[in-house]
Known about the structure:
Blueprint: E1 3-5, E2 21-28, E3 32-37, E4 42-47, E5 51-56, E6 59-63, E7 67-71, E8 77-83, E9 85-92, E10 119-122, H1 125-134, H2 141-157, E11 160-161, E12 165-166, H3 171-182, H4 190-197, H5 201-212, H6 216-233, H7 238-244, H8 250-261, H9 265-268
Parallel strand pairs: 1-3
Antiparallel strand pairs: 2-9, 3-8, 4-7, 4-9, 5-6, 5-8, 6-12, 7-10, 10-11
Amino acid sequence: MHDHVPAPGPADFAPTAAHPLRVRARRMTAASRIAPHRHAWAQVAWSATGVLRVSAGSHTYIVPPSRAVWIPSGVEHVVTVVEDAELRTLYLWQAAGACGPAGLGGGRADDGGGWRQSRVLEVSPLLRELVEQLVQPPADAAREACLAALVQDELARARPVPLGVGLPADKRLRVLCEAVLDDPARHATLAGWAAECGASVRTIARLFRQELGTTFAEWRQQVLLAKALSMAARRRPMAHIAAELGYASASAFSAMVRRSVGVPPSRFFASA
């Protein structure tokens, strides 16, 4: 059950050409949920502490403090608080035709249009400190402009992280996927999830292939990796992470991580 939080009004914290970056800070409790909404400007969702789940477009992202989610203008999104969080929302004005952060000429020239899609970004220590400085905008307009320009430059340079879980359009499958996201260890097999939602294994397997172009096992594996990343960010021991995600041993969990991302857990989780 989620506590619903209304989306910000269109005039609240709206960026402009004169103030191209606005930062909103909110403390939110676990299970809070900001209702689906969209903006005429781009947004970055990040939590200084805690863990978020951000659904934007056709993907959902589980976001620890070492990561942020870029959301282009016009994309409907929902923010759910997985763990008590200090939410920092950056609203960015974009010039006509720009696809990346506004002051950056639409992002790096070699970006390949990736800014037109939601993406996960690595949060550098510098970006973290710059955002905190703008939570209470400086009285000095020149200083505010300098800080905002530095934030946008750090965003343009931030390393994209290939994390994200696809979400289906089919309502039956969407309900099942949302349930897995909330508690991926409740059932270990597709048969258990299919029985819970009252559908046959064959039907659910077919929908996964049609809607998401993958198998249930591969999709759930991405969910488990995202959950594990958020737990690693809270410094949970590897054995605890493995047990909570339903693995019989830390070695079995490590083997899954190696198969999925090609590196051992110690390296995959190091940046968390």
